[in-house]
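Review the following:
>
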Amino acid sequence: MDNGVKLNLGEMESYIRLLSSDISKVSIVKKGEKEFASVGIAKTDWKAPKFTVTEDDKKIVLKSDSLTVDINKSPFGIKYLDKDGNVINEDAEQGVGYENGKPYVFKKTEKNEDFYGFGQKTTGLNHRGQKIGVWNRENLPEPISKYTFSSVPFFIGLKGDKAYGILFDNTYRSYYDMAAESDDYYYFWADGGKLTYYFINGPEMKDIVNRYTDLTGKMQMPPEWAMGFHQSAWGYHQKDIEQVAQTYRQKNIPIDGVMLDIEWMDDYKNFYFGEKFPDPDGMNKKLKDAGFHYTSIIDPAIRVPDPGQPEYIPYTEGTQKDLWVKNPDGTNYLGKVWPWGVPSKSVFPNFMKQETRDWWAKWHKPVFDKGADGIWNDMNEPANFSTVDYWTLPLDRIFETDNGEKVTHEEAHNVYAHTEAQATDQAFKTNKPNVRPFILTRASFTGTQRYATATWTGDNWSRWEMLRISIFQDANVGLTGMAMVGNDIGGFAKKPYEGVVATPELFARWVQVGAFYPFSRDHYNNDGKSPMETDAAQSLKWGRQEPWQFGKEVEDISRKYISMRYELMPYLYNAFKDAHEKGNLIFQPLVYQFQQDQKTHDIQDQFMFGQSLMMAPIVYQGATSRDVYLPAGADWVDYWTGQEYKGGQTIHKDADLGTLPIYVKQDSIIPRREVQQHSGEKKLTNLILDSYVKDSASYSFYEDDAKTEDYTRGEFNITDFSVDQKGNHIEFSQNKQTQNYASDIQSYTLKLHNATAPKKVEAANDKYAEAASLDELGKAANGYFFDSAEKVLYVKIPVNESHKVKIFN
């Protein structure tokens, strides 16, 4: 083995490999069996790193430049050490192996060790002391559940201030006791499959996620419109979609997307419009003329026509091609998805076969031809309306792979959504070449981020508790590789007679947070009924949930924060570029950036939006203030007042219903733009560089066409900005690192906070003139304006300014 060692363990043998200087793979299999890699693994062709091997009677040691793998021969066990010889992680005395065919691993832990990840768990940010299950499932009847719509068998351990990651690459239902049983160890096991796990060395959490996504795949760059705001409801008919879109424009609340839930289909049959959308071409024209993109829901289950119904060609074709999941006797498995209350049956595509994925991709053409820009994969755990099978397929149902191997649903369940996302991504590549995909998935597995653009946390409830949960759910989803994550703003599900509805206060506080979810959508349940045809407030007691339904105050609050998202689109777009390139989180728990500050390890009601903005939302009913922790390692500025604070302290912040407490990390540059009502409405001609500078700040600004795959062929710009305090002056400079895209930017407006009136502003021999107002500055080629009331200095700089701009105090 050129990248590790193989050990004889009697009936078993172990392979311990160094895939890179920081990633180790451990496999224990029966003699003669091949090592395992699930469909979640994207990269298998690793170039062996430089490392040494030493061996004696008791152990074998593999040593790279940053990781030591110390292997004890008998009893078998592994200890990982960093380059300084500190133990990062080691097997506990219970060891590793199989019990009754089930793989297990025990690890030692210390009392200062915390655990994060696993996807959209509802039990908290830090999982220490928790028992976790990885099994994608409809979380009925209540939203606080051991199992959720999407789970990932990956977690990050943080021991003190040093992090590591472990991916248990097993597709069966798996379980994790994260020091719940004992403070001295944690362990994980699965119901079947092989013992395979990857160990990833940090020491920074961001390094872990970067390497994890090297292994499992980086997310694709989404189109800019998908980063905007979206509106949806289960119940919208064509008339509702058109009315809602028109109202958003009339009320000047920015929005890019509307979503078509299952009511768009012809009697719940995928790929065909039904009578509730009588003129899809007309709808598409109205939406496109108003700057909207629409996303169509597609459920994996294919409905079997009821007796007397006309032929459903996808069902006929799939049956002829033998593409369905099977019963153990080889017949097609018949389950049920939609509609409720009708004894209809459904078949389920076997996405583990390439032939099925090809067929699925082909059938998206009529959907795209009618104008859909995105695809929403729902019900893909997979869901099946069978309580005896816990809302999924029976575990003994059969999937056949391309090589003829038969796999049970017990093994295939957790990767069903992953393989469907692969097929949907193929639909874009086949039918919309060079157009960036937008694929929203409810369920996912390790590596799904390389196919599906986004995920959301499924059918949440209109409860304050669910608003609170959304923050740590999205943080943990991000830590498992899916950076574009969100929650239904205002809550989806209702229980009106128990007070579980979106009140004006709840919606206002939720839209403040939701405006900064990486995937931002208001989605609600109207029981499949058209909101225009039913008085939901009377017949269902649920109420509509568009922002203007809650009165003028909440409408204004919604407009304020959604507009802020659109102002921050250059900042958000660059955060997505970092997620695409490095796996970086957009929605970050504080511990992600500030793991050296122990006080951040359990904070789950604050988050970083990108690298520089910290949100501390109000998440309790009736509250108009809260305590805010400002992490050590940075100084902070109150976004609304400009007041400056040292990090490492807790402050108290008053926040009326219209205020989301926001803090800016000092020494930051935040690129912004004028508000648009939708992406692409106005060209970006003036880039605002919102700068909070005490010493020095820098920003590498990325730009491309925001819609095609041309960026993968080098068509993009990167410009490095820096702002530095230099004794008696502040210095601005730019470095056009890469310029392969025809940008519309003509100027920059450097916006300096907590500034003083300058004595002069110049670039070499060119003296910038003082403008009398911001409007006057906007008309000038260059110049400056000082707002003495706000203590903000605006300096307008031509994009082709080749000299450093100096601002003298």
Observations:
- The radius of gyration is 27 Å.
- The first helix runs from residue 205 to 216.
- The chain has three domains: 4-216, 230-582, 683-808.
- The longest strand covers residues 87-99.
